[in-house]
Each structure stands twice: as structure tokens, then as C-alpha cells.
Amino acid sequence: MSEAAELKSWISTHKDDIFANDAVGTGCFSYSPGEIIWAVTKRCNLKCKHCSISEVDPEELSTEEGFGLIEEAAKFGPVKFGFTGGEPLLRDDIYELIEYAASFDMQVVMATNGTLITNEVAKRLKKAGLERAAMSIDGIGRAHDAFRGVPGAFKDMLRGMKACEEEGLAVQIFTTVTRDNYREIPKIIKFVDESGLWRIYLIYLIAVGRGKAISDACLSRAENMAFFDYTVNKQKEVNTWLKPICNPQYWAYLKAKGLVDRDDGTEFTGCTAGITRFHIFPNGDVTPCAYLPAKAGNIRQSHFLDIVRNSEMFKALRARSLKGQCATCKYKRICGGCRSRAYAFSGDYLGEDPVCGLWDKEQ
Ligand code: SF4
Ligand code: SF4
After folding, report:
1. Secondary structure E strands in the chain
2. Could you tell me the distance, in angstroms and rounded to a whole number, from the CA of residue 196 to the centre of ligand 2?
3. Ligand nearest to the backbone CA of 225
4. For residue 28, how far is its CA from the centre of ligand 2 (angstroms)?
5. 338 C-alpha to center of ligand 2: Å?
6. Per-residue pLDDT of the chain (363 residues; tens, 9 = 90+)
7. CA–CA separation, 177 vs 19, rounded Å?
8. How many alpha carbons fall within 13 Å on the CB side of residue 27?
9. Which ligand does the CA of 352 lie closest to?
10. 356 close to ligand 2 (CB < 6 Angstrom)
11. Which residues pair with 172 in a beta bridge?
12. Which of 340, 29, 28 is nearest to 211 (CA)?
């Protein structure tokens, strides 16, 4: 049996556990058959307060190593292959890498700060085969600039967003939700909705990388539950899809509220880290998630697929061998807690999610 056929067979055997259906598509609550995200560089032209990767290690995979990774990722089937950073547009070979990824049966996407995108850049990205670009907004105008550490970042991001739209490249928005920018959230949602963008990811601040220095800005358990209440009510008013990210218990919350039901075809699988979602750091380290810097292996030493199949970390995550309240929770299967948040708080990626407001109420 070829390696690809063997992998397909392996996936087929485990599909009920790892690829349960999902009503929404991607993010922290399942995507079939999966997402492979490569942070191509740690370099960046901004200095965001919450950046999950530091700039200590300048090591980057070469173009050839990137091609090898893309070939292995394509063996998963029609996965989503994402480029991120740092700022991925700082790599000279980024168009070549996108083009190569797009030559396989994968959706090719990119997370960028948007500030380097002109019409010419957007045209090249589209021509190379990029399907979507995600850009970040953490405040409106100067509030965004302050968060991102560079004056003019908001204006430049808007130019990039407009250029993508003009060149027919879909844009979605990432927003980090913290105590510091909480008052900006309604303004951001209004802006995104009025701009006609279809999706906004509202991302809980995971205190890793540079974000460790602002861990006091993380929402508390009570604040996070209030944020869920706000989000679900706000959803009724806007067309853009509001998706809390790094918060798999949002789906358990919706279920507890009777807002989603197994019978309506909606079933969530919770945190996908190390299950259907894999992250590759610039130096080749493979981890379960961008916000979970615990290494399962390195693609310079082992094949990516071997790491995915054989790493003890990924086996434990697939088995949901969780601890604390997540271990016995009735929502374990559809939530599983944010493994990155557990790791950031306790150093144990199998530990309980410390910002869950559902367990006490429901068990
Ligand atoms: S670890 Fe957290 S951020 Fe990563 S996929 Fe799971 S829920 Fe999402
Ligand atoms: S206890 Fe853990 S598994 Fe249960 S809802 Fe909370 S975070 Fe999710």
C-alpha cells in the first residue's frame, strides 16, 4: 500500500473520531479533512502587543523544504493549507510557495496584517492561487495602531483590504478580544458588517509569545461568559458570522442554550489542535496549534506525516485524554477545552481549560 493510500485508510478508520461533521467549516471546532498552517517567517513589519511568536529565532525553512511540506500536506486530501507568520509577505518566495500549494487539491489561504498589500500584490496573490486572505483589526483607527505598535497600520490595512476586494480576493477579519480593546468590539463588528465581509473571528487572547506581557488583559471566566452572551445576541443584528475562536466551549454554550441541536445536522467536534489542525513553525517545529508552542517533532528530522501519526502528543490529543473538569465534562467531545489556553495557564496541554464557565453549571 502506498503512503498516501495508507494514510487515507488510517484517516478512514479514525474519521468518526477526528472528522465529525461541522456546520460552520473551520477554526477551533472542526474542519474536515483538516487544516495545516505554516508560519513561514517570524519577521514582521508590525509590533503587535499580543503576537504569539517572538522574533528570537530567525531560522526559516527553505523554499525546497517548504515544497516538501506542501507535498506531504496534500496527502491528507483537500485540506486547507494556510500561510501565516510573522508577516508571510516578507518572504520573497511567497508567491512561488502559494502557487505550489494551489497546484494540489487544497484550499490555499493566508493570514496577513494586510499593510503590505497593494493592488499589484493582491493581483499576484490571486494569480498564484490564493483563495482567501484573513486580516486583523483590533480597534478602529488609532486604537488599532496602538495595539499593532505602528502608526498608520489601520490605514495601510484598509488599503490592503480594498486592494484584495478589487482584485477579487475574499477577505475575512481576525480580531483579538481583550480587556483593553473590549469597548472597540462593537465598533469593529459594525465596521466589518457594513463592509460586507462575511466572517469575523473573535479571538480570545492566549498569553504566549509577546502576549505573555499582557496576560492581565485576558478575559476572566465571567467576562468570557458575558462575551458569549454578547456575541450570540449581537449575531441577530448582523450578517457577518461572529465566530469566537480559542473558545471551543462556545459551541457547548450554544448547545446548552438549545441553539444548536444534533438533529438539525449541526455537530461540533471542539478543539481541533493536533487532531485535524497542525501548525508548523518557521524553524520546522510541528505543534498542535499556533498558540500552543509544544513541539511534537520537526520536519527537518522526520516526515510531517510520521509526526502527525506517531507523536505521543497528537495521540493523546486525538484520544482526548484530558484532565481536571474537562476529563469528566459532558461536553468533552464537542468542546474539549482550548488546549492552548490550558497550556498557557498550566504548562499541560491536556489540563483543564481554566476559562470555562460551563462546567460548574452543567455537571
Ligand atoms: S488549542 Fe485553542 S486556539 Fe487552538 S484549535 Fe484548539 S481551541 Fe482553537
Ligand atoms: S469543562 Fe472543558 S470540555 Fe467541558 S465545556 Fe468546559 S472547556 Fe469544554
Report:
1. 35-39, 80-84, 107-112, 132-136, 170-177, 199-204, 241-245, 277-280, 285-287, 297-298
2. 33
3. 2
4. 13
5. 8
6. 654 445 344 434 544 443 333 333 455 655 567 889 999 998 888 777 777 776 667 899 999 999 999 999 999 888 889 999 889 999 999 999 999 999 999 889 999 999 999 999 999 999 999 998 999 999 898 887 887 777 888 999 999 999 999 999 989 899 999 999 999 999 999 999 999 887 888 999 998 877 778 889 999 999 999 999 898 888 778 888 888 889 999 878 877 877 765 554 556 778 989 998 999 999 999 999 999 999 999 999 999 999 999 999 999 999 999 999 999 999 898 899 999 999 999 999 999 999 998 876 556
7. 28
8. 29
9. 2
10. yes
11. 134
12. 340
**Cα separation values, 91 from 61, 115, 288, Å:** 11, 14, 24
Instruction: Tell me phi and psi for residue 75, to 5 degrees.
Output: -70, -15
The dihedrals phi and psi of 287, each to the nearest 5 degrees, come to -130, 170
Place of cell 479514525: 14
**Ligand 1 binding site (Cβ under 6 Å of any ligand atom):** 28, 246, 248, 271-273, 277, 289, 291-292, 338-340
